[in-house]
Amino acid sequence: MRDFDLSLYLVTDDVYLENADSVSILKRAIEAGITALQYRFKKKSASKMYEELLVLREITKHNKTLLIVNDRVDLALAVKADGVHIGQKDLPPDVVRSLVGDEMIIGYSVNSVDKLLEIENLPIDYIGFGSVFDTSTKSDYTLVGLDGLRKACGISSKPVVAIGGITSARVPEVLSAGAKGIAVVSAILGFEDIRSAVSSLREAIKTYYTKKLHENYLST
Fold first, then answer.
1. pTM for this one?
2. CB 141, CB 166: distance < 8 Å
């Protein structure tokens, strides 16, 4: 499996992109510097999603951005996406792996520390863990908190991507808990100026790692 960068991971959502030009909005986010895009829609037809994904596949390739498709293994395969993201109600990870092969990234959503212990040996590449904070994006979420995130990062041998209510101001505490990336919806799609929203998150991530590097240097 090749290296992959999930540090700034945008997840799409029907609410924010309903009746909007999804591709145009997501293109701005990709060009502004997100490192991964999860294409996630529940209300669009398969034909519409396929049409949009074909365009987004070219845009993400050009910008070296990961394209990950939520749930729909068929669409991920059809457009040669970089990966697929599944949850506990979707096809089992071992079945998905048999379908997509070794080159495609598989992400898996988890919302409890106990569940992490059960899935340690599954053929997945990263964990989406949350909700870390209260979020308006989902109504049926489980709040894991920063303590839960910290425990998850300590237990999992896979990279953990934190999701749920993360803003640029919360980036330092999320990354210091051990997360390898932040997955956001409203922190980008909730703003009219998409490029500025992405820039704010990128700057928060860069500032955290610069400060950490400096602290490590001083401690040696």
1. 0.95
2. no
Chain-centroid distance, C-alpha 170: 16
What one-letter code names the amino acid at 204? A
Q: Residues of the chain with pLDDT > 70: what percent?
A: 98
SS3 state of residue 82:
coil
DSSP assignment of 85-153:
EE-TTSS-HHHHHHHH-SSSEEEEEE--HHHHHHHTTSS-SEEEEE-SS--SS-SS----HHHHHHHHH
Alpha carbon separation from 38 to 11, 78, 81, 85 (Å, rounded)? 5, 16, 10, 8
Res. 73: pLDDT tops 60:
yes
Length of the chain: 220
Nearest to 157 by CA among 213, 206, 106, 119: 119
Is 1 within the bounds of a domain? no
Domains in the chain, number: 1
| Domain-located, residue 69 | yes
